[in-house]
Predict the structure.
Amino acid sequence: MFHRFNLIGKLFAINRVILWVMTKKINFLLADDDGDDREMFEEAFKKISPLGVLNIFTDGKKAVDYLSNCPDEELPCGFILDYNMPHMNGPQVLDWLCNQTRMIGINKFIWSTDSRKDYVDGCLGKGAIEYFVKPNTIDGLSAIVKKIVDYCDTVC
């Protein structure tokens, strides 16, 4: 009898954690010029954080313009930036973010199809927490989004 109650208690605790993750409202920013990548990221994000807010931009300049005018209480808990974008690429956005004191505690990530060591090292040196190589499966993308949401859970 004791084991059954213990198991039920553990299942209840696991369900509470799953419910908490799925109902936590996370505010996040994605900047990527590739429409397919944006769409797939958004789909995975909605599955992992259904109540989350995902602000999507097609280039770094538009993301910076948004952040420049964003009230502090509406700042995202994290950014994922494509390495190669028109107008302002991921590393340039990271440079800009480094000079914005109100952005210091925000999680920053880069993703790209290119995994060159100098790209990775450069982005990590500019404050990115992690550099992801864009996956070619939905499971791979979901793993990246889950990791990013988990980072936001620790900050937000």
